[in-house]
Amino acid sequence: MTRLIALLLVVTAAAPAAVPQLTVAYRRDDHAAPLYAACLYEKDFDLRYGLHLKQVKSRTRYDLFDGPRSTLSLRLASFDTDSAVLAALLSGRAQVGILASEEVLTAVLAGKPARIIAPLQRRGDMLVTGFLVPATDYKEFLAWVRAHDQPVAVGYIGRNSMTLLGFMQALEYGKIKHGRDSLDSDAKVNLVEVKDRAAVARELEQGRLDAAVLQEPAATLVSAADGNRTIGRIDILPPGRFEDRPGTIIAATDSVIRTQGEAVGRFLELMAVATHYANNRTHNTLAAVDKWLRTSPALESIAMSNIGLSSRPDFTFTTGIWNWYFALRLKHAVPESLAGYMEEKDWLGVPYDSLLLMPALDRAGARIIR
């Protein structure tokens, strides 16, 4: 018996430690382009960074290797909408989510335990006009709106989207009165909430919408229809409070940050080097998006030219989070319990947790410059 116990102890000591597992939920479009590149360019990542994903099952299971050592098991789950990604996070079906920043920020206002833990994609807010609008840029669009004898219908997706808030501020700066989801005869622009990209395309095609404000890649895909066209970025329009704003982010819940922080940190390190790769190997990244999504490379190229990828929480990232909150507070759309924040630094601690990101960025930086 003594010899058996000793043998079991030796076997147990020699057995490798269990590799932690994470399920990553993401929205099914090119917002997760760095992740696609990491999944598809195993050898390139290993050579450049000493960190790579090894496929276990195509599109769903990958093991993260630091050199020869497996450190993390990833399960990927794709969804059609940001709200579905958020639901997977909050239910515990996923530990990490890649989704729109506004989805998480809105959840925070509702008292949900979701937190932004890293930036990923920024800007990409575009104005798309329908076939009846004779404008080629925003200046001409405003002139047409002012001269039009009926309210101009402009569609948007997402009640609290930064795309919408930025456009509303631009209209106000231009002294264009707007209404929301109404046919107010005093308004020159009627803002109409639409369910999804397909519905926006349909409404533009049938003439019920004159234009739409959309984030990429939705803007490029909608403008590809006959008669529609993208006439420019709107996040840069005066007063410019949402310029280069945070679009897609990486999120987790409070409990996952607390109990699985080390594993999440490893994933953030991978995404930091993957973002570096995507920015420096754009041709390869577009090829990865094409292979993963089976979409038009030409359209994806246009869409990705209008966005930026970054893992660093810079000024535009933190300011965008603050301006979203401040814009809603001015519209009395923030719960009273959260309406007392008067400075950016105080509000940021509510929706954004940087505890895991900063060490991950340091480790990724050492891999990038090695």
Description:
With 370 residues, the chain is α/β, with parallel strands linked by helices. Helices cover 45% and strands 22% of the residues. It has 16 helices and 15 strands. It has helices spanning 2-14, 33-40, 42-49, 82-91, 101-109, 138-147, 162-173, 197-205, 218-223, 254-259, 261-280, 282-293, 297-305, 315-330, 344-348, 357-368, and strands at residues 21-27, 51-57, 61-66, 69-79, 96-100, 114-119, 121-122, 125-129, 152-156, 178-180, 189-193, 211-215, 229-233, 248-253, 308-309. A seven-stranded mixed β-sheet has the order 2-3-4-1-5-14-6, sandwiched between helices. Strand 3 and strand 4 (69-79) form a beta hairpin. Helix 2 crosses helix 11 and helix 11 packs across helix 16 (357-368). The longest helix has 20 residues, at 261-280. The radius of gyration is 23 Å and the shape is globular.
What's the gist of this structure?
Helices cover 45% and strands 22% of the residues.
Number of strands: 15
Percent helix, as a range, is: 40-55%
Give the end-to-end Cα distance, rounded to a whole number of Å.
Answer: 52 Å
Total of DSSP H or I helical runs spanning 4+ residues: 16
Structural class: alpha/beta
The portion of residues forming beta strands comes to 15-25%
What does the overall shape look like? Answer: globular
Unreliably modeled segments: 8-15
Largest sheet: 7 strands, mixed
**What is the CA-atom radius of gyration, in angstroms?**
23 Å
Mean pLDDT: 93
Order of the strands making up the biggest sheet: 2-3-4-1-5-14-6
